[in-house]
Records
---
Amino acid sequence: AGAWVVLDELNLAPSEVLEGINRLLDDNREIHIAETNTTVVPDPDFVVFATQNPAGGDYGGRKQLSRALRNRFTTMWIDSLSSDELRAILQHKCQLAPSIAAAMVKVYEDLRAHRNVDALLAGGGTDLITIRDILRWAHRKPGTMEECGLEGWCLLGERLRHEDQRSEVAKAIAKHCKTYGVTAASYLETNYREDPYVLEIQKSGGGSGLVWTETMCRMVALVGRCARNGESALLVGETGTGKTTVVQTVADFRRIKLEIVNCHQHTEPADFLGAMRPTAGKKDVRGLIKAKAKRMCDLVGRDVDEEQSVAIVREIVNEYELESDENSEDPPSPKRARVRSELRALWREIADLRADVNHDRSIDHDLFAWQDGPVTRAMRGDGHWVLLDEASLATDAVLERLNSVLEAGERSVMLAEKPGGEVVVGGDKFSLMMTMNPGGDFGKRELSPALRSRMTEIWVKALDYADENDDSEASRLIRKLLSDEAKSLMPSIRRAVA
């Protein structure tokens, strides 16, 4: 039976690629594959759908489709949700109290009435709030009006770069999320030093090398909220403001592996998701098997060489019951449980390598094999974090290949480049973070609204090194890094970097 296919962000693809499916969309309903000289006729139930953002404007990389292609589709313009529809979604899908849902919708209406001036000031975006923003706000499950106001401010206010816009958001939240004693000024002066997430990290001894300035506490509190709610964070700020360090600190505190990918103008989707790479020969694979077998022997205290270790692996598998999900020792000691877990991982890797060696068409016969990229690796299993550093240096078409990974709910990606295709779904601990410098500098630009709306954006303020106050954040940072003898040089250092 035929399937339905959705071509997302259609107008990001080159025109010559899109024109290749013209005959599939007209009355002929067939497609010719020149590389194999075959013609494919689809099933009667096969249907193609496509989505796209408007061409031009803030949506970088989008192109006008040719008339020949557009005429083959039935075009529909999708308007924004009405206030009544949005209120119903918040109450029934997000399970919010009617009063809280109504307050969120009123904030949404107020802010939609004020056009964002960031587009004129190289700040990107034309609206102070989007549908995705209010849904993200609702998914944080505020139980009281006070929580509703604070979470709304963290999401909507802390990403803005200009004080007049921050003030506008603070006034709207204070007006509709009415809480005794809380005004617009209360949100603008939020004290993140007392944030529970910051206090929890400090109490555990995490971030021991950090200087806990107000800016650092603010970033940790905001990124921590993103991590707690399964959101992808986009940190925007000048170089040297601690964006990468904050993500590393939160990942360390949560005991989650963090993989950092540095983006550049030649970054390709394969750098994130993986690609077909040249394979190693059987000799190299057998060497890997011996090395992993030797590691298993070392873990259980067997002093043998690599050649002997392969023969002993089966004894270790039986002794530690590695092929069984159960353990006869109830409960196992912490040390034995840790060793068994590592042994099981090594045994699975050995089994996979042996399967490759024994497979008729693998290793020596296939010159290339699929290798996962950092994002795909992070999504598998329980998952871990990936940080795309300097994300804005990569092109829109490359970054928006990750749109499905950033969607709320099931974060997945279709590996169309992999032979046979595969859908990879992110594990519970998986998260994709990004950092970037603000647009306007050489080579720096703003990300498209379509990508930014899928992430929780955080504006990171630069330190003011010109402030000569000894208690300023810049002074405290410099003082932390200097020895007692060198502290007399603080005024000179401040003037040099200001």
---
Amino acid sequence: MAQLVNVIFILVFIFAIAAFSIWVMVRGDQILDKWATDNGYRIIKREHWLFWQPFRFPAVRSAQSVYHVTVLDAAGNEKQGLVFCGSWLLGVIQNTAYVKWDD
């Protein structure tokens, strides 16, 4: 009986982590789309970065979604950069986005 309880606990734990990960990705997509619309950009390409360079961007936490995007502005200029969706403290619970444009 104890083994069954352990197996159920492990399965529930795995399910919770998977559900949280999916939620973070979906919520990140929503924040990214809103950021693009609010700033007059059209997203041409988006890459969700699951792994990023931690020494270059130490403020990113696992509850934030990070995207490398290519966008067109209203004048037709193409830009590329990283968009950090969510806040450092609350992750994607907070509806914020910060962009760091490529040089």
---
Amino acid sequence: MTYIVWKLSGFSPNQVIRSSTNLDSSRFRFLLADHLEVNAQDVQAYMVKEHGDSSIAIWSSISIEGVSILS
């Protein structure tokens, strides 16, 4: 599916992200919010790669209420 979107969209390959890790990203945001005692809706964070054990957290993507955790 991702391949088809990439081919039809005209985007470069690094601009197309598959959605298989959406569930992992949602769980990650929930766990971060719980640990940091903030509302999960205020947390932005993403997991990439394949769904499951091989998912990787993109730590630079994490922000709480728009503020990066790296700042």
---
Amino acid sequence: MKNLNWTTASPALTGLGIFLLFLSICGPSLASTQSSDVRVSMDYWAPYYRPALAIVPDGVSIHVVNPTSSPHSVTHDGCRTGGPCAFDTGGVQPGQEFTIPSLPPGRYPYYCVLHPIMRGEIIVLPHHTVISQGTIHEHFTVTDVDVRESRE
């Protein structure tokens, strides 16, 4: 039986650990892309939207649910900055729901107009897209995710 060289195994184990951490953070949003829509729920506590980062394929709708006792919105940052406004749910009342139709591939940061501390992001990937594990590294922010088209 061969002895395991921990010096060479360490980077591989670190990479595996980072990948598993990424899946545990984004797992619910990635798993839900198998259905016809993705669910984003509002919450009282940070990160306020669950999941705070929803990664979805194009052609999928985002179903917004407000189970809290306060109205909230899911408003694309472009609506505030004068850029293209991809979606704005308006005030979603307690117990109400709203569906954001499928979006073209891209990044869609959003916030609650009534409570600007509430922030989230939707990343819409083209079909057959893979996320390169090597680009996630130690920075678990959306801006560090490298999106590439699959060649299959």
